[in-house]
Specification:
The complex is a heterodimer. Chain A has 5 helices and 6 strands, in the order αααββαββαββ. Chain A is of the alpha+beta class. Chain B is 35% helix and 29% strand. Chain B has 5 helices and 5 strands, in the order H-H-H-E-E-H-E-E-H-E. Chain B has helices spanning 13-24, 30-37, 41-53, 85-94, 119-129; strands at 57-64, 72-80, 98-104, 110-116, 136-150. The chains are: A alpha+beta, B alpha+beta.
Chain lengths: 154, 156
Amino acid sequence: MSTRLDDQDLDEKIISILERDARVSNREIGRTLGVSEGFVRKRLKSLLETRKLRLGTLVSATAMGLTCGSFIRFRVAPEAVSAVAKRLSEFDEVRFVGISCGRFDVYVVTLTTDRDAMFRLLRERVDPLPGVSFVDVREIMDVLKYEPNQVRIK
Amino acid sequence: MRLPLNRPRALDDLDRKIIERFQKDPRVSNKSLALEFGVAETTIASRIRALEENGVMRVVALRDIHAQGYELLAHIDVFVEGRAALEVAEELAELEEVAMVATCAGSPQIIIQINAKSRQELAKVIADRLAGIRGIRAIESSITLDIIKLTSKYLE
């Protein structure tokens, strides 16, 4: 049992090294933690396969010219909710899609080059979706806090 | 001439190609990038360093929100009265349970995201933490029943 706890502990340590820089080699991680390269490779493979972790490249939205963030919230007919959510999740500009309860049925966060691109997304690709009865748009002025390294791995 | 480090400069084609390549394979080696783009490995290394130091790119491990134990994700509209919304937003940003704070034009002035490990925890954040902040007149919550998409491509 103590071995298993040690493994979990090592997993956490591997993750925290990779959270700072995912390009650190398995060999280097092994050296830091005093385990073999093979062990690190095996643990990392398991973390990736069980979808606890994903390695990714985060890019500055500003540097990429994406300056307009918006919350777009929808009221959708119950039978259409899942199709609308799925369709929205296919758009590149859409970073988050949740099916929610409360005043809105589908909750979306978008990131676009500018307001015009957001409007075009709404007019050309969202408005035609069947079942959407109400759209509430909140353009973000300023982001004071945001944790980019949390994702949903499907 | 060498550009001083930390001075942000416009991205060129090579920078963009490096970023794109990392988006496909975060652990691609400098050596294979050098071969692929026909430049020296040292050029690749210094480009990557500049991209990282200028805050343009970071190659990192991303954690699954459910695997971390966050079962409940709530977006909350915060309606502010009698106090500068930015002050309220700053106080909200200090709360550990609050994962995201954004200010908006109009009302609600602030939208936040809370990640909670249970219903009880969410209730506690709302009752103990939000209620303690002066200037919050009302809140309206949307509880996520199912996350269809939550990606991270961007640093900010």
